[in-house]
Every structure is written in structure tokens, then in C-alpha cells.
Amino acid sequence: MSAPTTTVEQIPAKSGSVLTALILTALVCNINLAVANVALPAIGKNFEASQTSLNIIAIGCTLGLAMSVLYFGAIGDRYGRKRMLVIGLSGTIVASLLSATAASADLLSVYRLLTGLAAGMAYPTTLALITALWGPGIKRTKAIALWSGVSAGAASLGPAIAGVLLTFLWWGSVFLIALPIAIIALFLVLKSVPSGVNESTEKVDNLGGVLSVVMIGSLVLAVSFFGSLVTRELSFYLLGVAVVFGVLFFWRQRTAQNPLYDLSVAKRRLFWVPAVGGMIVFGSLMGAAFIGQQFLQNVGGLTTALTGLTGLPSAVALIIAAQLSARLIINRGSRVTMVSGYAFVFIAFLVMFSWGEKTGIFPVILAYVLIGFGAGLALTPASRSLTGSTPIRRVGMASGTSDLQRDLGGSIMQALLGSILVAGFSASFAKQIASSSDASSVTAQISAQLESSFSSAAAVAASYPQYSTEIMAAAKEAFLSGSNFAFIIGAAAVLIGAAVVLFGLPNQKGENALMEQYEKEDTQ
What we know:
The chain has 524 residues and is an all-alpha fold.
């Protein structure tokens, strides 16, 4: 292996312009992930789309990004990271225009997938270039902190802007949010970002890349479809495909001369522990937002626009915490910083558990701020540790793994908490029906509709206005019962993640020693 050319405190020429270009690119890639969620009702009405079609539209961008980051990250390491940025941003511009003017739900699904694939080219490359251009030290840590904060905060920013746009414009306007930012980012990349920085000369493991695409794509779809009874059987089939291709992928990585995913690096403590820890904490952020948005609309009665805007405090808290995280990492190390972040996320789940029908907006914003602040503290050391424990020539692997923290973590926790919410809602409503004095007059079909979801219960209430008040009161009670179960599981997942980090990561002295050890191994 060739020795890395970076030195401590090394920074690129025009560092401000370069970092701005990379941060804006990361913002573009992440702001696109969740903008469709707010517009789903309008999209469904416009195209008369089924719930399955809407689900595919909702996860299309995440799917494209998740399934491609490892492969595209390796291609960027070999054939040019700046080239991948340019292609990815150009693809985003085209895909955004196509999505906004789609003629059918099926075409919109395809265009959302293309948006994700474009993000898969650009997003892992941003972190890879930060690691390649900034030498190990304080300035790299601060650059990663800003990258991490903006990247994660964009996931909350997108729905907030989309909610406002939908108040005045058509459903397709939400897919144009990233367009002006992408144009500016593309200009800055072409002007400021250097080419040929510590790139690999090894051949890309294309077979491993194809296997990773199928493996991760099947897993994301399986997790995303699990929450619906209609698609649950398909979810199990997709999970089987993911397992088979996962086995083939890891066999390939053990036997390939130039593996796509270097397992000798992946097994390092400073790689796999923050990878798992970051996945849980970002997944908690996305899962809590997923349930919180439904709570605000279903129980709180807020409009789509106001619901989207409640996510802004979380994004602001996340970006602020990411900057504080950089200082804490330097002074206390990754373990203390990540565990501190987990503490805030855990408290946020306790606050969410206290939500009720009479809950005002303050407890909701408080929970969002706490979970955003906690995620901001935890994600920066996770990304820094991943890239710092990886050879520069394979940094695309580390940045791809960092991206998967968000995509897989968000998908898994959202599906997990969503499924628990549905199960809790159904059980509570069934119990209320059984204890009602009118239970004998409720048919099996109506009972199934009531127990299906809050929106389904609302539809029944509209059909039977004489019972509307009782049905909606029961629906709110059932939703709160299901959400409380989900928040308990979310808090338990946070405790597990904190334990993994607390016992898996060394203290600051041990972390620095391991970093030095990895650097020696990679330069031999």
C-alpha cells in the first residue's frame, strides 16, 4: 500500500470554496430524501395512486442512494471523485425536473429512483473528498462536523419547505427544492474542487458492486414494505433475496483480489462500532420524526405546513450540536461524545412518551430539539471515526458506510417503530370495540377498517357521522397507545446503541493509539 500524502492540518487551496461546494452537494442529496412524504396525499389524489405506489414513491430516493453508495464510492476512489460529483449533481438537476413534471405515478417512482442514484454518486464523494483533502487534525474534524450537521439537518429541512410550498403550489413543486442549490453546487465544484486527490489505482470489484446493489436494495425494500399488511409477504421474499446476496457479497469480498468492501478494515473497532452506533442514533431521529408528524396531524390536528415547520428546530439543534461535537471530540474523544448524544436522544423519547391528546406544541418541539441535538453530537464522531480508521485510497468505502448509517438506519427504525405503532393501534382499537355497548352491531368488515389505521378509522367516521365523535376519540386513544409502545422500543434501541458505543469504543487515549496503529498498518 502507498503511504498517504496528507499531513496534520493539511488543507486544500481555496478551502472555503471547496468546503462550501461539498456541503451544498451534501445538502442537495439529503434534502431530496424526505420531500415526497409531505406531498403523498396530493400525489395520490392527482394520479389516483394505490398505497403501494405511494410507498414506492416515498422510498424511491432513499432506495437509489442506499443501494448505490458502496459501489459508486469505490468507482469514485478509482476513476475520479470530482467526476462523480459532477455527474451526480447533473443527474440530480435532470431527475428533479423529470420528477416535478411526471405524467404518472409509475414514472414518478422511476424518477425518484434516478434522483437517489444521482445522490449515490455525489453524496459519498463529499465525505471522501473532505477526508482526502484535509489532513488528520482539528480542521478535518470541524469540516466533518459541518458536513454531518448539514447532511442530517437537511432531512428535517426538506419536509418543512415542502409543507409550505404545497400550501401555494402544485405537488411537483416539492421536487424542485434542491434544483437551485444543485446548480450553485455544480458551479462551485467545477470551479474549486481539485481532481486526482489520493485516488486508488486498483481495479474496481464490479461483481462485488452488483452484489452489493441487489443486497442493499432488497434489504431497504424489505424493511420499508414490512409495515404494511398488504406488502408484508413481499417483504419476506425480499428479505430472503437480501440474505442470499448478502452471503454471496461477503464470500466475494473474502476471495476477491481487490475487494469492494475491505473486511480487514470493516472489523476494526473504530469502524464497526461507530457504524452500528451511528445507524441507531440516526434511525431514532428518522423514526421519531415519522411518528411525530403523524401525531401532530392525527391527534394534534395541525395542518401539513405547520407539521413540516415543527421539524425546523430539530434541524437547527442538530447543526449547532455538530459544531459543539467537534470540540468535544478533540477534548474528550469519540466515546464520550457519542454517549452524550445518546443521552439526549433517550431523554427525547421520554418526552415523547408523555405526549397526549391535550399536549401543546412546546413538548413536541422540546422532543425534536433534544433528539436533533443528540443526533448532532453522535453523528460527527461516527463519521470521523469511520473515515479516520480507513486508508485514504479506500475512503469511499468509509463514506459509503457513513451514508448507509442514514439510509439503512432510517429505514429500519422507521419500519420498526411504524410496525409497532400499527400493532398497538390495532390492539387498542379492538379492545375498545369489544368493551363498547354497541360491539354487537359492529361488523367484521367495519371492525377491520377501524383497526387498520388512523386514516382508515377517519374514513369510517365520515361514513357514519352519527358515531363520528366516538370513533375519532377512540382512534386518538388507539394512536397514543401504539405510539407509546413505539417510543418504548425506540428508547430501548437507544440504550442498546449506547451500550455498544460505551463498551465497544476505547477512551480518548486508546482511540488515538488505535488510529496510529491503523496508520502504520496502512503504510506498510
